[in-house]
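User: I need a structural model of Pimeloyl-ACP methyl ester carboxylesterase from Pedobacter steynii for a docking pre-check later this week. Nothing fancy, just the predicted structure tokens so I can convert them on my end. Input:
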Amino acid sequence: MFYQKISLYFLLLFAATAVRAQQTDTLSITLENVKYNYPVKYFPIHTEGQDLRMAYMDVAPLNAPNGRTVVLLHGKNFGGYYWTNTIKALRERGFRVIVPDQIGFGKSSKAFIHYSFHQMARWNKALLDTLGIQKASILGHSMGGMLATRFALLYPESTEKLLLENPIGLEDYRSFIPYVSTDDQYKTELKATAESTKKYYQSSYFTVWKPEYDELVRIAGGVTNSADFPRWARVAAMTFTMIYEQPVVHEFINVRVPTILFIGKEDKTIVGKGLLSPDQQALHGQYRFLGKQTAAKIPGAKIVEFEGCGHIPHIEIPTEFNVALLGSL
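Assistant: Understood. Predicted structure tokens for Pimeloyl-ACP methyl ester carboxylesterase:
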């Protein structure tokens, strides 16, 4: 009887541990079980016969409001959750901060639609209009930089400043990356695991890996265990196609708002990098050169460069980045 009780105890302990592991390692593709640091609201969107929801945070100034607003646009493999330190720094200086999860990302709907930077810009403008914000500084990181540029091109009167943090799309990927159909990219996205996600983040995003970066992997890798992961993978493939087929690089010359680039000089990001040979990879994605070249294309643009930093300065060197950002604002 004693051994039966012990066996039952360990069986229950194992079951409880398994449940905890599942709760930790398996995430909804709309991140319901990921807590953002500020309250999340939802903006309704109707498109292509579908009712969708765009998640966003509207964070009030912590101290005396300065009457200004900053919008933070995330990269392709992220959502609003990775802006926490930036939000804190901005609100402490009196800024209102709007942090959307674009449709297809973060806590927002994972819809099967035609993804378009023009459409995303329109949705973000509609969100700002609804919130009564007539003008804002737009900070875009990575893919968010492409979206921020499109927003500034479409709505210059609503863009106080265009702030680009290691934006992708500084090259026309169509000119050197082999074309991959959305269906083929979908097959590639389906192969993602938490382990492959961490390996990619280590090799692509940071110069030195730190334990706190594991939280980014927990979120991005956690969705790969969801029963709905195929939907997530399909949307990821669709947005890959959007990036490939909708460059902004040829329109930088048309930007007519004050622009500042924040560039981690060790960044070597190339969308579709795995489709190139090592020799081909060495010819592209060199942000220590691309940053300066892009600043030269945008009338009156300024550039702030960070030594020894990779693709995500606001996470890798948050203090240095925040000082530069606040100084630029």
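Before docking, keep this in mind: The two ends are 72 Å apart (CA to CA).
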